[in-house]
Structures are given as structure tokens and as C-alpha cells.
Design a protein that fits this description.
The complex is a heterotrimer of chains A (about 260), B (about 270) and C (about 150). Chain A has helices at about 5-30, 40-50, 55-75, 85-125, 125-130, 135-165, 170-175, 180-190, 195-220, 230-260. Chain A is mostly helical and about 260 residues long. Chain A has one domain (about 35-255). Chain B is α/β, with parallel strands linked by helices and about 270 residues long. Chain B has helices spanning about 45-55, 75-85, 100-110, 115-130, 145-155, 175-190, 205-210, 230, 235-245, 260-265; strands at about 5-15, 20-30, 35-40, 60-65, 70, 85-90, 165-170, 195-200, 215-220, 220-225. In chain B, the strands form two sheets. Chain B has a six-stranded mixed beta sheet, with helices on both faces. A four-stranded antiparallel beta sheet of chain B has the order 2-1-4-5, with helices on one face. In chain B, helix 6 (about 175-190) links the parallel strand 7 (about 165-170) and strand 8. Chain C is of the alpha/beta class. The chains are: A mainly alpha (about 260), B alpha/beta (about 270), C alpha/beta (about 150). Chains in contact: A-B, A-C.
């Protein structure tokens, strides 16, 4: 087979894969309403996807906040503008770092776990067994995990932002360590962070990222070849694809949300 | 005595996977109330047949009916209704690994009925008792041996009192005792519950022991069918090789290739 | 997994998340300033608003009393009409003036209110009559060159 032909085939395959994943997403969304009768399933998944990610999110939030305060201070003090530290940390976290870093960590921790779990269930015939028992695995296994991801990511992102900006992160380093005035730190933040633009942006971005990461994770798991190699590939693909998709979507969202300032 | 009407009827069934032809015009009748065995070498599509009957895959041609209904033509909803009348026992048991034995058997009951927990508990314990594992109800699948896992899966398969149970290689890899247990269970459950059973296997000796009717399938077609005795006494060489487990016969031992002497370059050696 | 324990933990997680959302909304942003809170809107017309943007602060004697909510062109006078939301509790005399000033090193522009002496205060929807537009660099240079030119001609 010559090279151009292979290239075209590869492109065609990717497009077909994308199409399949979109149909899959639509089917999952269509099964969401049935979850109203079984909140238990969603709660269990919220635990596994949200609660178990808390530690890494909180710790990362604190570290990121501290680093931003540290290096931001370095930069601002040369201009005599260290009073603006609060503003600088808060805006960086809320506009970009918060949603993106949280989503990337989420993809690595929860996304890969979801893909592996579903892939393994497929490989051990559990999904097939369910089908034969007249239980739709999409409703019972995939939909609860999808919904849990959608709910968990915005919550985790908010927690990350608060940790980064607040008493354990930026505030701790800026005020306690570097001597920036606490009042100036917080008033700078309150004056310059706009709810309509910046905070809403947190929710919009984390919502979009939630859909992207969870969708990729459950699709990769569900469509993995039922072998150990297949599951392993599905897991790594989830992390790689999610990361790229997050960064790409972030670029577009930033352009749209902050473009015409 | 099993009555003569067929619960499952396949006529001129055709199916292929990619380039491989799996079924090329196959006729099969699964009679009500008895145990029908489907035998053949590995890879001839025995498991495929079960998936076709269960509606997981669609045949490429011919007809496949369950209780008179064409399986492939059913809507999603009717198909699910149909599946409640069938139980399937997978080779690995396919138990849900995060649920206990009790919860696994209770699963179909909780999903498909509105029975109160008290009643569900009674039903589950009865089913577990039938397979001899009532005492293991709080164990998890990871703690079970392969044979025990299959028995739990069997209890789960009969939880909704289906009309038919399909067994996918139930004897594969079992030690003699587990094998004996399973054989006994399959026969007794079939008779006690008035089930129709389909056993897919290549463990010839064991399967012939309990089957009422057998089909031997290979190369996409039915090579022979009849009662266990008829199969054992079959005139076909092929069937004899299979049943007697002979290494060489119509299915050759050597994979096709050049003559041995040529390959070793005997002529070229000094 | 125990039923009760699980539900409690998940409930805790969701509460934590909502608390974070709340903190972000109330403490980290300026939600207290805009719209939802008690206040009134006044307008002022300027010949040139310079770099003033919606959301810029409104200050009185250096204290922040509100925000610019909207900047529009008046089609008859061709002036820029700036709408400002002033927080409840800050009374402005009717004859106060509004100036567009530049803050600090980073050059963000804001509206500075100079209090007047009238007895009546501005109410919701009133217009500030006396205004001074932003200082435009080109005009400043133009003025400077003009003066230089004049002096040179003496």
C-alpha cells in the first residue's frame, strides 16, 4: 500500500472513530434521565471520582498558589507594585490555571481510572453478561460515571481556586511570608476579579472540561479491545487525548470569553 | 420426555466475522425441555451461536427464531424482554467484581422486579442452595475458585426463572470434581425446573453424558447431529476423529507445508 | 462499601465544593459591588472617555463608591454617556462633577467624583452635569507644540 493511500485511510479511520464517539456520547446523554430513579449509582461514582481526587486537587491548589505568589512577588516588587499580588494570583488562577490544572489532574487521576475500570469490565465479559441479563450497561455503568464526572469537576475546580488563592496558598506565602499587606491582597482581588467575567468563566470552563474528560474516559474504556493491551492503551489514550483536548478547548474558550476586552 | 417443538430454530443461518465465514447455511433446532449440546473444534463459532441467539450479534443471512420470534428483527425493548427469558452462563462466569456473591445473584432481581428485599433475600438463598453455595453468600468473586464462580453465575442465571439457559464452555479447565458437580447441576436443574438447556462445549465425553441431542459443527456447517449414542456410533470419519480425540485423521496433524526432506535440504548435504 | 458512610462522605464533598463556589463568588470577586446589591445609577456625558472601560471603578476622595456599568454614544450630542452604579449609602450632591482620571503606574482609568455643595442629592437616573473628559496624549502634545510655536514667534 502506498503512503498517500495509507494516509487517507488513517484520516478516514480517525474520522470514523470520532463519529462513533459522538454517537456514543449522544446515547449516554439519552440515558441520563433514567438516573433520576437510581441516585445511589451516581453517589457511588461521585465518591470514586470526586472524593478520591480531593487530596491531589487540594495539595496541588496549595502548591500552585504558593508558587504564583512567590514568583509573582519577585516580578511585582521591582515595579513597587507588590500590592497587586492578590490581583495577580487571583486572576491567573481563576482565568487559566484553576480550570486547566484541575482538569489535567482530573484526567490523570479519575479519567484514567474510569477508562481502566470500564475497559476491564468489558474484557471480563461483565458488560456482556449485563446485556444478556437485559440490563443496559450504558445506563447502569456508563451514565452514572459520566454524570458524576460532570458534577465533580466544577466542584473540584472551585476548591482548587480557593485553595490556591486563599489562606493556604497565595495568601499564606504572600502575606505571612513575604509581607504583603493582607488588606491590600484581598481588596485587590475583590476589586479586580469580576464575577460576570472571571468567576462565571471558572464554571463554564470546568463544565466544558468535565464533559470532555469524562466523555473521552468512558468512551475509551467502552471501546477498548478486551485484552490487557487494549485496556492499557485505553488508559493512556484517555490521559493523552484529554490533555490535548483540554488545552485546545481552553485556548478557544479564553479567546471567546476574554477576546473582546 | 422433552416435547418435540423447538424453542430455538435456526434455518440456513449465515454469519461472518470480517473475512472469515463462521456459519454457511446452518440448520439447528433446540428442543424444549431437553439439553442440546453444540460441539466442535475451537473457533468454529459455538460461542457465536449463543450470541446470535441472544441477539448480541445479527446474522448475515437466514433466520433465527426464539419461540417463534425472529430475534434480529426485534426492537431494543422487545429484545430486552426476550433476554429476561434466557439465562446465560459465560465461560468466566462474568460476575460483577465489585459485588458480593449475594448481590450478584440478587442483581437481576433488583433490576427487573420490584420485590421487597425480604423476598429477594429468600429467592437468592434458594438459588444459591440449588447450586450448593448458600454458605458462600458473603464472599467476593475474587475469593472464589473458577468452579465456584461458575456455580454462582449459574445461580444468577436462574434467578429470574428463565425458560432457557445457555452454557458457554462450562467444563473448560475444571478439575474432575468440579466437572462432576457441574454435570450434575446442569442435568438436575434442567429437569427440576423444566428448562431448555444449550451446552456449548468441546469436552466431548462429559457433554455426551448429559445431552439429549447433539450437534457437531465445523467449517461453518453441521457435520452431524442426533442423540449421544448416534453421535458415538456415527459413520463419519470426521466425527469419529473428534469423538475419539484422535490426533490425526480428516483433520490433519501437520499444518500444510513443503515436504520434510526438502525443508531440511537433505539432498544438499554431503 | 457501607451505605451510610458513603453518603455522608459524598455529601461532605459536595458541600465543600459548594462552599468553595460560594467563597469564589462572594470573597474573591466583586459581586458585592455590581448590580445585585443596593444602589442607584447615575449618568454623565463626556467629550472623550479615553481608555475608560465598563467595570472601571468610580471613586470619591479616593474611596471606591461604585462601578462603571455602561458606555454609550448619544446620537444627538455625539458625546459619550457613561452609566455608573453607585453603592447605597453614598450620597452625591446634585452639583458634583465627574472626571476621568488615571490610576497609578499601570494606567487604569477611573471616574473620580468631586463633591458639590448643593443640598439635594443625586437620585437614581440623574445626570451629573459638570464633567471633564480624559486627558488625551495627542492633544497634550499638540497644545505643547502650539505654545512652543507661540513662544518662538515672540
Amino acid at each position: 500500500m502506498n503512503a498517500p493511500r495509507q494516509g487517507i485511510d488513517a484520516v478516514a479511520n480517525s474520522l470514523a472513530e470520532l463519529g462513533r464517539s459522538i454517537f456514543f456520547l449522544l446515547r449516554v446523554i439519552a440515558s441520563l434521565p433514567s438516573l433520576v430513579r437510581k441516585p445511589r449509582l451516581v453517589i457511588e461514582q461521585l465518591y470514586s471520582v470526586g472524593v478520591l481526587s480531593l487530596v491531589i486537587i487540594v495539595v496541588s491548589g496549595v502548591f500552585v498558589g504558593m508558587v504564583l505568589a512567590l514568583s509573582g512577588y519577585r516580578l511585582l516588587v521591582d515595579f513597587g507594585a507588590e500590592e497587586a499580588l492578590g490581583t495577580s494570583v487571583a486572576l491567573t488562577v481563576v482565568r487559566e490555571l484553576g480550570p486547566v490544572v484541575t482538569a489535567l489532574l482530573f484526567a490523570g487521576r479519575a479519567g484514567s481510572a474510569l477508562a481502566a475500570e470500564i475497559g476491564l469490565m468489558k474484557a471480563t465479559d461483565q458488560l456482556s453478561g449485563m446485556e444478556m441479563m437485559a440490563v443496559d450497561p450504558l445506563r447502569r455503568i456508563v451514565a452514572p460515571r459520566f454524570l458524576a464526572g460532570l458534577i465533580a469537576l466544577p466542584l473540584l475546580t472551585s476548591i482548587f481556586c480557593v485553595m490556591a488563592i486563599g489562606a493556604a496558598g497565595g495568601h499564606l506565602v504572600g502575606v505571612a511570608l513575604l509581607g504583603v499587606d493582607a488588606g491590600a491582597y484581598w481588596s485587590g482581588i475583590q476589586e479586580n476579579v469580576e464575577f460576570g467575567k472571571d468567576i462565571v468563566n471558572v464554571f463554564v470552563k470546568s463544565g466544558v472540561f468535565g464533559v470532555i474528560v469524562t466523555w473521552i474516559a468512558v468512551y475509551q474504556g467502552y471501546s477498548a479491545p478486551p485484552t490487557s493491551e487494549g485496556v492499557s492503551r485505553a488508559t493512556t489514550s484517555t490521559v493523552v487525548l484529554s490533555s490535548l483536548a483540554i488545552l485546545g478547548a481552553n485556548l478557544m474558550l479564553t479567546a471567546v470569553l476574554f477576546g473582546e476586552v | 420426555m422433552p416435547d418435540d417443538s423447538s424453542l430455538v430454530e435456526a434455518r440456513d443461518l449465515r454469519f461472518r466475522r470480517g473475512a472469515r465465514v463462521i456459519f454457511d447455511g446452518v440448520d439447528i433446532d433446540i428442543r424444549r425441555g431437553g439439553i442440546t449440546a453444540i460441539m466442535g473444534p475451537s473457533g468454529t463459532g459455538k460461542t457465536t451461536l449463543l450470541r446470535l441467539i441472544g441477539g448480541q450479534w445479527r446474522p448475515d443471512g437466514g433466520s433465527l427464531r426464539f419461540d417463534g420470534q425472529e430475534v434480529a428483527a426485534l426492537s431494543q425493548k422487545r429484545l430486552f424482554e426476550l433476554r429476561k427469558r434466557m439465562g446465560m452462563l459465560f465461560q468466566t462466569g462474568a460476575l460483577l467484581t465489585d459485588l458480593s456473591v449475594f448481590d450478584n445473584v440478587a442483581f437481576p432481581l433488583r433490576e427487573h422486579t420490584r420485590l421487597p428485599e425480604r423476598l429477594i433475600r429468600d429467592v437468592v438463598l434458594m438459588k444459591l442452595e440449588a447450586v450448593g453455595l448458600r454458605g458462600a453468600r458473603d464472599l467476593y468473586p475474587a475469593q472464589l475458585s473458577g468452579g465456584m464462580a461458575r456455580r454462582v453465575a449459574l445461580a444468577r442465571a436462574i434467578a429470574l426463572d428463565p425458560e432457557m439457559i445457555m452454557y458457554d464452555e462450562p467444563f473448560a479447565g475444571q478439575d474432575p470434581i468440579s466437572m462432576g458437580v457441574l454435570l450434575r447441576l446442569i442435568r438436575r436443574l434442567n429437569d427440576a425446573l423444566g428448562l431448555t438447556s444449550v451446552v456449548v462445549s468441546h469436552d466431548v465425553k462429559e457433554t455426551l453424558q448429559i445431552a439429549d441431542h447433539c450437534y457437531v459443527i465445523a467449517d461453518g456447517e453441521v457435520k452431524a447431529h442426533g442423540t449421544s449414542d448416534e453421535i458415538r456410533d456415527s459413520a463419519s470419519e470426521w466425527v469419529q476423529q473428534f469423538v475419539q480425540a484422535q490426533a490425526d485423521g480428516p483433520v490433519a496433524f501437520h499444518y500444510p507445508g513443503p515436504p520434510y526432506a526438502e525443508d531440511l535440504h537433505v539432498e544438499d548435504r554431503p | 462499601m457501607q451505605s451510610r458512610g458513603l453518603e455522608i462522605v459524598v455529601g461532605f464533598f459536595v458541600c465543600l465544593g459548594i462552599a468553595a463556589v460560594f467563597i469564589l463568588t462572594m470573597r474573591v470577586s466583586d459581586l458585592a459591588d455590581t448590580g445585585g446589591i443596593e444602589g442607584y445609577t447615575v449618568t454623565a456625558a463626556f467629550s472623550n472617555v479615553g481608555g475608560l472601560k465598563a467595570g472601571a471603578p468610580v471613586q470619591l476622595a479616593g474611596v471606591r463608591i461604585g462601578r462603571v456599568t455602561d458606555i454609550r454614544i448619544d446620537n444627538t450630542t455625539y458625546e459619550a454617556v457613561v452609566s455608573m452604579r453607585i453603592r447605597e449609602g453614598y450620597e452625591l450632591p446634585e452639583d458634583s462633577d465627574a472626571q476621568i482620571l488615571t490610576a497609578g503606574l499601570l494606567g487604569e482609568q477611573y471616574v473620580g467624583i468631586g463633591p458639590g455643595a448643593a443640598r439635594e442629592s443625586l437620585a437614581d437616573g440623574d445626570r451629573i452635569k459638570i464633567t471633564q473628559g480624559a486627558v488625551i496624549l495627542e492633544e497634550l502634545i499638540g497644545q505643547f507644540l502650539y505654545q512652543m510655536g507661540n513662544r518662538g514667534g515672540e
